[in-house]
Amino acid sequence: MKVRTFMAGVGMLAIAGVAAVFWAGYREHGGTAAPVSAETDAGQRVERGRYLARLGNCMGCHTAAGGQAYAGGRALDTPFGVFYGPNLTPDPRHGLGNWSADDFWRALHHGKTPDGSLLYPAFPYPSYRNVSRADADALFAYLQSLPPAAQENRPHELKFPYDQRWLVAVWRAFYFRPQSDRPDTPPEERSEAWLRGRYLVQGLAHCAECHTPRNRLGAMALSAGLAGSRIEGQSWYAPPLTGDQATGLGAWTEQDIVELLKTGVSRRSHAAGPMAEAILQGFQHAQESDLRAMAVYLKSLPAAGTDKAALAEPASQAVMQNGGRLYRQYCAQCHQDDGKGNVPAWPPLAGNISVMAAAPDNAIHMVLSGGFPPSTAGNPEPHGMPPFGQMLNDQDVAAVVSYIRQSWDNQASAVSLPEVRKVREAAR
Predict the structure, then answer these.
(1) Is 365 marked as a binding-site residue?
(2) What local confidence, expressed as pLDDT, does residue 180 receive?
(3) According to the CATH classification, is domain 192-299 in 2.60.40?
(4) Which entry of 14, 66, 236, 257 is 20 to 30 Å from 5 by CA?
(5) Residue 403 in contact with residue 421, Cβ under 8 Å?
(6) How confident is the model over 396-426, as pLDDT tens digits?
(7) pLDDT for 2 beyond 60
(8) 270-328, pLDDT tens digit by residue?
(9) Are the C-beta atoms of 233 and 353 separated by less than 8 Å?
(10) Which residues, listed in sequence order, are joined to residue 379 by a DSSP beta bridge?
């Protein structure tokens, strides 16, 4: 999603799209060109939008549990309060029924509603500004094809002063420009796959929204790239997607990345938490070529310069002894004494970037609450991990997670009791 789209570019894309359909029809009909109807073109645009909506996991924020798809109401906990995803169906009163394609483009690209009101950046328009006009129009066509839902939008429940919407203008003055940060002219030496991967990662897939560090006002530190970040309000950690060998994707192959996105499991790690949902509802439905393109782009990113010294604070001998005892009692049967696991059933803990992450939240979550990778076409019956939060106290959890973070050549910091308590509270 990295090709800058100006109106001239949109026109060229439209011409190219019509030409492609024309040529496909010409070949299919034995050399006699088949006419392309407006109805066919509109249907193709809707289907394209359906695919893009899945790839971007729009349902993840705009569909409440048990509710109608895209009717809104899903809660998003943040340090600033709770945001609720709005209704995206074509209901004229509560949804997008009175919106135009231009209105939708303005929301994605400029973060503004039709009447000019500023949207909170909980809606990831800092990433969606990279979406092309053609893809925005396809998304809008798909949303307009949905059955209307007369479901009223739930007001956000924000803390003061964040409930003062006019402050969004101040935030934008410091941290947002409608123009993309990427160069208008892509590097000539880059492949088509790399360009496509960059476009997807930095745009519709909005990977930076979770995997990029943020400041106290919620603005992404774009200079840090995809260097990993704690997902505040949820106590999950999105690991680096950079080339760091220990905590990022440096030791992963392109195929490892594709397999994780497509199936939820790989020989390196299993998806859990918010990433499992993104795969369940989004990435598993993506075309292999798009997943491969994302992998090509991610593998091109340099290491983020992780401070290994900060990650290597050792646990005491007593903590390691207690943690090792608990690991052998509860964990080794599946994850093995050497931490290599039994892929695809049980993931490795040795060399696992979620285990060695700068923040231990993910490993603590799994010990406390257990969980499953997503059920996907490539892994329809995933093996799960039972919860141990009821039988292990905070001190025990800190010990066993410290043990796995400092065994089998893993070099990550020990886990403190406050870190365990914070995640336990968030998991309730």
Answers:
(1) no
(2) 66
(3) no
(4) 257
(5) no
(6) 999 999 999 999 999 999 999 999 999 999 8
(7) no
(8) 999 999 999 999 999 999 999 999 999 999 999 875 545 445 678 999 999 999 999 99
(9) no
(10) 376
Task: Determine the residue type at 214.
Answer: R
pLDDT at 40 over 50: yes
Residue 285 marked ligand-binding: no
Residue 111 to residue 408: CA distance in whole angstroms:
47
Q: How far apart are CA 189 and CA 171, in angstroms?
A: 36
Fold equal for 192-299 and 309-427: yes
Annotated ligand binding at 109? The verdict is no
The percentage of residues in the chain with a pLDDT greater than 70, rounded to a whole number, is 87
Q: Which two tokens stand for residue 43?
A: 């249907």
Q: What is the pTM of this model?
A: 0.85
DSSP letters along 75-128, please? EEEETTEEEEPPP-S--TTTSSTT--HHHHHHHHHH-B-TT-PBPPTTS-HHHH
Sole residue written with tokens 């899945």: 54
Q: Per-residue pLDDT tens for 334-346?
A: 999 999 999 889 9
pLDDT in tens, 60-95: 999 999 999 999 999 999 999 999 999 999 999 999
CA atoms within 13 A on the CB side of 171: 20
Question: Which DSSP helix (H) or strand (E) runs through 334?
Answer: helix 332-335
- Specify the DSSP element, H or E, that contains 338: none
Q: Is 61 annotated as a binding residue?
A: yes
Give buried/exposed letters for 53-74 (b at 16+ CB in 10 A, else e). bbbbbbbbbbbbeeebebbbbb
On whether the CB atoms of residues 362 and 240 are closer than 8 A, the answer is: no
Q: What is the rounded average pLDDT for all residues in the chain?
A: 88
The hierarchical CATH code for the domain 309-427 is 1.10.760.10
Maximum Cα interatomic distance, the chain, rounded to a whole number of Å: 80
Are 340 and 398 spatial neighbours (Cβ–Cβ below 8 Å)?
A: no
The reply to whether 58 sits in an annotated binding site is yes
**Partners of 272 in the beta sheet?**
none
Annotated ligand binding at 211? The verdict is yes
Cβ atoms within 10 Å of 20's Cβ, excluding its own: 10
Q: Domain extents for the chain?
A: 37-72+80-175, 192-299, 309-427
Helix axes 417-427, 394-405, angle to 10 degrees: 110
Which DSSP letter does residue 182 get? S
**335 annotated as ligand-binding:** yes
